[in-house]
Amino acid sequence: MNGSKPKNESQRGFTLLEMMVVVAIIAILAAILVPNFTRARAQTQTAACMGNIKMIATALELYYTDTGSYPAASTPTNVETLGLTGYLNQTPADPAGPGSYTVKTQSNAGNGGVAGYQIWCPGTHDPGTLAKIAGGTTANTHIKFDNQAGFTTVSAQNQ
Ligand SMILES: [Zn+2]
Q1: CATH, domain 15-154, list 2.40.30, 3.30.700, 3.30.43, 1.20.140
Q2: Less CB within 10 Å around the terminal CB: N or C of the chain?
Q3: What are the pLDDT digits (tens) for 111-126?
């Protein structure tokens, strides 16, 4: 009689080497995917912030169409206190950070006969997601919109 009957093939477990290979493959996949998810999240925040700014710009243009001037704000003013009630139903929040969007306006007389405005975002964005905007560098983290110059990036709000 043979007491040490060989195990059935289907009952064999994994060897240590097989387990190590599987764990290594999972680790490699995670190392590839996690940074991509992080970057995608930051890019979504930047896109949403630019949408918020365009929404504020549209409200300012509607205000201008109705009244003939932008709301008075000779220094950067929080958008909540700008008097855009009826033009901006909800005050947008920057997904990249806390604080208020700020707006500065110029009257026709004070700007060489051309009225204008600038909008700044309060949040701190991943600079890599701002690279496609004019002025995007590895240092700038904030988005600025000028009704003449369009989107640019700056290193701090209200600059
Ligand atoms: Zn922002």
Answers
A1: 3.30.700
A2: N
A3: 566 789 999 999 999 9
